[in-house]
Amino acid sequence: MSSSGDRVTFAGSSPSERIRVRSADRAGFVRVNGTAYRGTVEFYARGGKVFAVNELPLEAYLMGVVAREMGARSRAERAALEAQAIVSRTYALKNRGRFRSEGYDLRASVSDQAYGGVDSETPEGNAAVRATAGLVITHAGNLISPFFHSTCGGSTASPEEAFRTVRPVPYLSPVSDRHSGGRERERERYYCDLSPRFSWEVEWEGPNLGDILRRTVPSVLGVEASRLNELRDVTVHRTGQSGRATEVRIVVEGGEIPVFGPDVRRVFETPEGPGLGSTAIVLASSSSNGRLARLTATGFGWGHGVGMCQWGAIGRAQDGQDARSIVTTYFRGGRVEAWY
Questions:
Q1: I need a surface site. Which of 91, 112, 143, 338 has the fewest CB within 10 A?
Q2: What would the pLDDT profile of 296-337 be if each residue is shown by its tens digit?
Q3: What angle do CA 24, 28, 32 make, to 5 degrees?
Q4: pTM of the predicted protein model
């Protein structure tokens, strides 16, 4: 294994061998696949693959997270960036050491928080991190588990609507995103309705949906594909506190197959491939000769729906709300306080 400048080469190294790289210029960065990172990067080989772990101070890490999560925002939306900084700092501290056995704390993807290093930083995002330095969200004196998502579509969700393993806690209760300004042009306004994913629609032809379900139902639910030989209807059987579907039933020749909230998005893949954007759906179907001919899902929001709605935070910032108000609105009973 050898290194030169910002380049690292693995050649005949043992699986346990590691190399740590830091820029020769103290003000410089380490580049991995063209992306610049602060701090140091440790490389190691495992299972025929090369892994890179970026080690850096928490506040520097947050600079690579906030704008990556929230996108480029205007000065009028700075409170939303500050709210994201507080939430992301809390998340990082709460989950520190989660992957210690694998040699790192957090993953750089949406499975934890989107992190893009220096290249994803913006002046506004970095200013938001500095302005909130050390601030976290607590409940009963402890760091909360601060979930967040793109767009709630009108109301955030309770954990049991979206997850199997997250227990209900007061600060993750559903929160309405209805705009305090009331109605506009005979419709309700919502803080997140500026999101491009506030509402959407997916349509399946019956035979195409049958093919999808015969693939997803066995893998997600463990139900044999043979039970889906004749698809007759799909209905929302039960909804949760936020109005999201918590039980959808697939009606087949031999009866009904229930699909519960945490599985709905994975079972009902879109014709293009990915799963549903959210479980806040209204279903409409048509049939022919007793079989499902077409199913349409009108959906609202994007993501699991629990915790802070990012587009809602942007809308609230535009409305003049500050970061503390935004955070404590989405995490009821939570307190923003200095952790260090």
A1: 338
A2: 999 999 999 999 999 999 999 999 999 999 999 999 999 999
A3: 90
A4: 0.91
